[in-house]
Each structure stands twice: as structure tokens, then as C-alpha cells.
């Protein structure tokens, strides 16, 4: 069976394709299939349209060079493992404090990086900033954490003597935030002889996995050879913390009414943060995990384009901050499908849809006389505040809730055009005037009266008591 493994960061994605060794696969039938034969490796870097590609020797050389250079960068002590161009396909050179040159020596350079027609093409040279570098380090870290991918390949790091180090503990504190992976921290610590070299792979989130056919753009082999130093046992089962595994260990939120409320919170977090809407060539589709309080606790790319283009979305920036919120443990999680479309439209919907028609959550004002009076009051307030010539060509439909005094407490777009043109209505200004934010949590601490409000392209306004979602 062809197997594909992805290790993704905002500025770097490692994609490994290969096969399982059937003589060993029987020992791991209860786990993910083991990728033990690497056929193709691809490294996607932000800012470059074409990936770096090669076979196993290219990938092993990349891993050694990345790890060695990260140690050198953090310790300021030269590491020959990062610069061995005589026996390695990959080399790193420091340009300045924030720029690093990645050099690939290969006769099979991929198209897009070099257009030479010579049989032996010149080296590929790519300049990375420090954030890109440590995203690459973290992607390598994810690989080493995955015991079901090339398990016999391990990283050998040797500590440099502390007295030769050109940096201090302060440098570690500055550099480590860019490399938050466990192996990356090990590189930093080993650079200053703080901990012994790692002897086994630390547990980390499991990468994305999907079945795929291998490609044929494999780089020419080089003299670099593998250095197998460890063979895992069949019962090695590191704790897995990725989104899919999390959903297998915690309850799932399926109540339609709660999903409807969370759907809005997810949209309100992502919509204003998505500022680059004109650069997408294909729709980017993600699966999101969301806690009961609306915190986005994880996301997973659904299509290949989403995996590569996550840096063009605000998802890395809207994940919950563990410093300001308790960690996710056994909390129920809701799943949503989020699509960043090429038209610049954000689509959010429950991953499994709604099992039944959702209802509005919270206490409601039901007295018909009070509802009738609030209906008229809401119509008058909105009508007086709505001015200008509409540019939309379809009806904008909203659910609007007010308290017993007629003050707006919540509003919700009911169709996509209502999302797109909400600024042409007075609703966000009315809401912002009360709560100081257009994305503030709705007022649900007191009974509310709910209405459907329709803004028509002709300039007509309709307000009617809420009859429920359709």
C-alpha cells in the first residue's frame, strides 16, 4: 500500500511518500501502517512555488543538515554536519543574523528552481529567514516524533562544550520560541551541553496521513548514507495529540442548537482575521476542532492545497492561547468544516451537518403583547438608522434579538449574502454601540425576543417575529 505522511508548519511542509515492508507490517496491525520504504520526499517552503524533491538520501541529508545547523545557530559553534558538501546533498550557510542559505547539491534539481539544461546542474540556493528555518526544524521534529515513519532512522546530536559557546541562556530564550518542538528544544539544549543527546523519539502530534501514489521526480543518489541506530519495539505507542486523536478520546458536541451557536463564534473569529483574500488559486478546506466556549483547539487540512497554503489563512493565529485558557483535556469538542474560497468568501458549517433543525439557545420573551411592541420598536430603530442606496441584489436575512427594553442583544446572518453585506445594515453599529465590539458574545443572561429582519435591495425593510431556522 502506498502511504503518504505530511508534517506541516505555516512556512514549511514535509511530504514523504513510500511503502510498508510487509515482513514487518504484521507487528503493527493495530497501529497506523508503517512507512518503512521511502520512495519520494518533498519539502515545500513558503515563498517558493516548487518543492525540493528527492529520495531517501536527499531526505536523510536534509535532516542531518537542518539539525546540525540549528545546533550551530543556537550555540554559535561551527558544526561540520551542517556544511559537509563533499558527502552530503544538503548544506546550510549563515548569511546574517536573520538569513540562512539552504544549498542542495543534486544532479536532479527540480524545475522552477533552476532552468539549466546541463547534465550536472548547479546547486540550488534558497534563502530562509529565521522563522522559516525553525519551521523547517519543527517539521523535522514532527517526523522524528512519528515512530511509524522510517523508524530505524534516528538523529545523532553531539553536545558542544559550553566554554566554546558564543551565546548565553538569554539567546536560548530568544531563539527557542521560533522552535517549539521537543526535538528543537533538544537541539537548543544540546548546543549548550544542558542535557544529554536524545536516545529515542519524543512523543509528538501524529501528522496527517492519506493514501497516495508516489511521484517520479526523485533526485539522483549521492554518497551520503543512512545511519540506523535504533529499532523500535512493536509495543511502542507514544501518546498522540493531533486533532483526529483528540476527537477519539473526548466527547463530541452534536447538539444542533449548540453547534449553531459555535458556528457563529468560529465565523466571527476567522472572518475579520482573514485579510489576504485575493491570493488563493484553489479553495482551502480544513476540519476544525472547537471547544464549548468557542476556542479553536486544532485544525487539519482536508485537501493538499490547504496543507500547503495554511500560511495564507489566519488559522495559526486564531488557535487558543494556553496561557489565557485552561488546557484541553476531556472537554467536549465540536467539529466544523471551514472553506477559504477563491472568491474571498469564508464558509463555515458543522462537519457532520445538523441532525435536526437547531433552535435559539436561552430564555425567550413569549408574551404576545410584549413581542408585538418590541417588533414595532425594532422596526422603527432599524428604519431610522438604515440609509444609503443598497448595492446588494438579494435579500439580506438576519435573526435579531432584543431585550425587554428593545435594546439589541444579538444578531445573526441567515444567508451568505447577509454575511457579505452586513456593513450596509445598521446592525453592527447598533451592536457595537452596546457591547463595544461587533464580535462580542451575545447577551443571553436575560429573556430575549427574537425577530427575522429582512433588508431588501429595493430599500424595503421587513421585521417579523422569529419562527425558527428554516
How do the helices and strands line up, and which of them pair or pack?
Layout: E1 2-9, E2 12-19, H1 22-25, E3 37-45, E4 52-54, H2 56-75, E5 90-96, E6 99-104, E7 124-129, H3 130-145, H4 169-175, H5 182-191, E8 208-210, H6 243-249, H7 256-270, E9 284-291, E10 296-301, H8 304-308, H9 315-318, E11 333-340, E12 346-350, H10 368-385, E13 396-402, E14 408-413, H11 416-420, H12 427-435, E15 449-455, E16 461-465
Antiparallel strand pairs: 1-2, 1-8, 2-3, 3-4, 5-6, 6-7, 9-10, 9-11, 11-12, 13-14, 13-15, 15-16
Arithmetic mean pLDDT: 75
Beta-strand level of the residues, as a percent range?
A: 15-25%
H-E string:
EEHEEHEEEHHHEHHEEHHEEHEEHHEE
The rounded distance between the terminal residues' Cα atoms is 45 Å
Look at the helices and sheets and give the structural class. Answer: alpha+beta
Separate helix tally = 12
Question: What is the 3D shape?
Answer: elongated
Task: Give a description of the structure.
With 470 residues, the chain is α+β, with helices and mostly antiparallel strands. It is 26% helix and 22% strand. It is built from twelve helices and 16 strands. The strands form four sheets. Strands 4-3-2-1-8 form a five-stranded antiparallel sheet, covered by helices on one side. A four-stranded antiparallel sheet has the order 10-9-11-12, with helices on both faces. Strands 14-13-15-16 form a four-stranded antiparallel sheet.
